[in-house]
């Protein structure tokens, strides 16, 4: 089971647009909601209303600041991170039980919770921090690419995409077949220079990230320094100011 | 990485146990009757005890039996299977020596010794295979684990002079491991720029974490307390693993109490260095979190 399938023709995955993402965490909430009620053990929260709350999430949004090389103003980038459904997924081959597997038919990486022993080795092998052990269920949780939505004929067609994609109000998340060069997502990646995260780890991620577009180059000259608007205090305040300085 | 006591005990104790098995299989020492019972009891107690300790680390123990299924790809699975085969290989030989004072099954010994070493190698590969933890991902990791096991086994089988020499080798390798390990993360070339893919634009810095509470990733992959005192702990474990035991073994006359004292000091040192092995190991996922 933990042998990786020979390269799957279909490579379902996400394309995340770092230019468009507004960092609202809507995808985080939608993911938690759907995956708590569907595939596998619910995503637990521990001590949710106490002093030390923590919970399991399959998708989290970071925020990074970039100081551009040309010295322009710093730029903030919202950065959603979830499983990248790697082609060479190290989390699959390290699994001792066969619980962790990559589907030959569409490339989705899943965990069979009925075999998982919660040893955590798959999470150790993931460079992206995409797997979290659920403290309540004791099994490894990860993005399923909403495998229970995308093929679900009981849902209206527009809902047959991962919950994070369906909910994104900014249109920053795209779902499709990255193995098909003619698919919308593949064209988007080609057009916008989609990139891999930590390519030097050799995991060959399926999910791609679209870099932020270059900022406007208008007003390159820095604004003039503001003229001082504060005046020397007069009258009683002036006397107080001088008296205090002499002390 | 979080230095979980169950895993520290597992790697240290099972390594010692299989190290002792390696020597027993080669006939060092070759006892019969109660004396044989004594050494085999120690070997089985350490190796099985260590393996049971590793089970404590599992969050979902009821599925543990499946861990024997994925030997084709998983070092953890291979380790489980090999340890059981090694333990069963020694059983008939041990029974013959203890109850029948017979060496008729001693031909199993060398096979068992090889299996014991391969088991320790598999244990080390669970860690050495992880590209995400550069400090572990080097050929020296299995070499170090094997040398620890062989030296500890020599100490347990009361071969004072051999153990003394082997412990000097352990110390040299351990220091090479620490020194090389310190440079490993930088050598990977991974930084915040490659982790986020944004490095081509400029210098990347974390502005805000994805979560304000702790989570599994932070608890498991981050551990900074150990690094603060790592130099002191390296010195302490050097003294305990090797310096004191080597002086005792090579300079003092060989006696049972002295050998036991050297052994206990060595084990304390192994536990310290194993604690450092985990505590000092940096995971590349930290690049997504750290401020730098």
Mean pLDDT rating of chain B: 93
CATH class of chain A, please?
A: Alpha Beta
End-to-end separation of chain A: 81 Å
Strand content of chain B: under 5%
Shape of chain B: globular
What is the tally of helical segments of chain A? 7
CATH uppermost class of chain B: Mainly Alpha
The biggest sheet of chain B, with number of strands, parallel, antiparallel or mixed sense and barrel status, is:
none
Strand content of chain A: 15-25%
Transmembrane segments (chain B): 7-28, 34-59, 80-101, 107-128, 140-156, 162-180, 233-252, 258-277
Keywords (chain B): Membrane, Transmembrane, Transmembrane helix
InterPro entries (chain B): DmsC
Protein name (chain B): DMSO reductase
Briefly summarize what is shown.
Chain A is α+β, with helices and mostly antiparallel strands and 247 residues long. Helices cover 21% and strands 19% of the residues of chain A. In chain A, 45% of the residues are buried.
List the helices and strands and how they pair.
The complex is a heterodimer of chains A (247) and B (292).
Chain A: E1 12-17, H1 26-37, E2 45-46, E3 54-55, E4 59-68, E5 75-82, H2 90-93, E6 100-102, E7 109-111, H3 121-125, E8 132-133, E9 140-141, H4 147-150, H5 163-167, E10 173-177, H6 184-192, E11 208-210, H7 235-246
Parallel strand pairs in A: 1-11
Antiparallel strand pairs in A: 1-10, 2-3, 4-5, 6-7, 8-9
Chain B: H1 5-25, H2 33-56, H3 75-99, H4 108-128, H5 140-156, H6 160-187, H7 192-196, E1 202-208, H8 216-221, H9 225-228, H10 230-251, H11 256-279, H12 286-289
Helix pairs in contact in B: 1-2, 1-4, 1-5, 1-11, 2-3, 3-4, 4-5, 5-6, 5-11, 6-10, 10-11
InterPro entries (chain A): 4Fe4S_Fe-S-bd (IPR017896), 4Fe4S_Fe_S_CS (IPR017900), ET_IronSulfur_Cluster-Binding (IPR050954)
Keywords (chain A): 4Fe-4S, Iron, Iron-sulfur, Metal-binding
Region (Disordered) (chain A): 196-222
């Amino acid at each position: 089971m933990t042998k990786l399938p020979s390269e799957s023709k279909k490579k379902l995955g996400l394309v995340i647009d770092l230019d468009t993402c507004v960092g609202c965490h809507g995808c985080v909430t939608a993911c938690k909601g759907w995956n708590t009620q569907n595939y596998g053990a619910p995503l637990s929260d521990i001590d949710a209303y106490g002093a030390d709350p923590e919970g399991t999430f399959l998708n989290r949004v970071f925020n990074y600041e970039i100081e551009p090389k040309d010295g322009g103003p710093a730029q903030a980038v919202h950065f959603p991170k979830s499983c990248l459904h790697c082609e060479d997924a190290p989390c699959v081959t390290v699994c001792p039980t066969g619980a962790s597997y990559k589907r030959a038919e569409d490339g989705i990486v899943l965990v069979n919770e009925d075999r998982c022993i919660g040893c955590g080795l798959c999470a150790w092998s993931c460079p992206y921090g995409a797997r979290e052990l659920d403290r309540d269920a004791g099994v490894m949780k990860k993005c399923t690419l909403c495998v229970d939505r995308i093929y679900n004929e009981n849902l209206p067609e527009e809902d047959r995409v991962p919950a994070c994609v369906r909910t994104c109000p900014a249109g920053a998340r795209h779902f499709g077949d990255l193995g098909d060069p003619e698919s919308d997502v593949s064209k988007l990646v080609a057009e916008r220079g989609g990139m891999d995260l930590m390519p030097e780890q050799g995991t060959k991620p399926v999910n791609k990230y679209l870099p932020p577009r270059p900022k406007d180059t208008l007003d390159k000259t820095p604004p003039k320094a503001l003229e001082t608007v504060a005046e020397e205090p007069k009258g009683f305040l002036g006397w107080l100011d001088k008296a205090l300085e002499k002390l | 990485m979080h230095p979980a006591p169950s895993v520290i005990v597992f790697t240290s104790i099972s390594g010692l146990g299989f190290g002792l098995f390696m020597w027993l299989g080669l006939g060092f020492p070759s006892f019969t009757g109660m004396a044989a019972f004594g050494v085999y009891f120690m070997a089985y107690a350490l190796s099985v005890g260590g393996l049971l300790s590793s089970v404590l680390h599992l969050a979902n123990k009821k599925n543990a039996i499946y861990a024997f299924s994925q030997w084709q790809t998983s070092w953890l699975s291979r380790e489980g299977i090999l340890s059981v085969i090694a333990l069963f290989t020694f059983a008939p030989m041990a029974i013959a020596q203890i109850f029948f004072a017979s060496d008729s099954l001693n031909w199993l010994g060398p096979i068992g010794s090889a299996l014991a070493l391969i088991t320790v190698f598999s244990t080390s590969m669970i860690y050495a295979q992880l590209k995400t933890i550069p400090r572990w991902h080097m050929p020296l990791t299995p070499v170090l684990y094997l040398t620890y096991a062989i030296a500890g086994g020599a100490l347990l089988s009361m071969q004072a002079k051999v153990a003394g020499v082997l412990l000097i080798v352990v110390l040299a390798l351990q220091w090479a491991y620490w020194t090389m390990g310190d440079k490993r993360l930088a050598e990977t070339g991974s930084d915040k720029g490659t982790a986020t893919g944004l490095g081509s634009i400029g210098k990347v810095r974390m502005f805000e974490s994805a979560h304000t509470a702790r989570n599994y990733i932070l608890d498991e992959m981050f551990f900074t307390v150990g690094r603060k005192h790592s130099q002191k702990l390296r010195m302490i474990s050097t003294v305990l693993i090797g310096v004191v035991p080597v002086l005792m073994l090579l300079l003092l006359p060989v006696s049972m109490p002295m050998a036991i004292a050297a052994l206990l000091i060595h084990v304390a040192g192994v536990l310290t260095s194993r604690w450092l092995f985990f505590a000092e190991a940096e995971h590349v996922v930290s690049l997504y979190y750290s401020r730098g």
